[in-house]
Predict the structure.
Amino acid sequence: MSFINYSSREINCKIVYYGPGLCGKTTNLQYIYANTNQQAKGKMISLATETERTLYTVPGQVFYDASRKLILKGVDGVVFVADSQVERTEANVESVENLRTNLAEQGYDLDKIPYVIQYNKRDLPNAAPLDELKDLLNPRGVPDFEAVAPKGDGVYDTLKSIARLILTELKKGT
Ligand SMILES: Nc1nc2c(ncn2[C@@H]2O[C@H](COP(=O)(O)OP(=O)(O)OP(=O)(O)O)[C@@H](O)[C@H]2O)c(=O)[nH]1
Ligand SMILES: [Mg+2]
């Protein structure tokens, strides 16, 4: 649902950061927002639940599945944020499966839309080895990045990568 505004020379598109609860989605967005030029940004709007967890991105609770489906409407590209901690292995896998299912319900194929993966929390001692995460979460070999979101490591690399894929898709004129 991207659109081009020729007079303001802007391309608007919808990128969804998806991933298990507490993987660092909001932290990515906060870093990007805090480090983007004042003239180049609007307002950051956040819908949080009573417990401070972000509404759209919340974890395994069935309750929030409806919100997760809604947020995927009109999506141009997806960043899957994985939580590198060994303890979150199952949560990562479930979340990708949930992403695939919810995308399919909106008529999208995870294997066809712009898609990148970020392995976040690389700073933690219980982070799984990178190749294990790749084997598990990235069998197709889409662009992927290690990150420490609060420090900003890998955050812009991830964003630039998904933006590039979306622009390539736009140029095809689909
Ligand atoms: N050590 C470490 N902590 C991180 C990293 N990224 C995020 N965190 C912390 O993990 C917690 C959850 O981060 P959020 O950004 O709120 O996670 P979220 O994915 O938005 O969570 P929900 O919206 O509840 O699904 C916060 O305390 C962050 O500071 C990281 O790379 N390293
Ligand atoms: Mg959040």
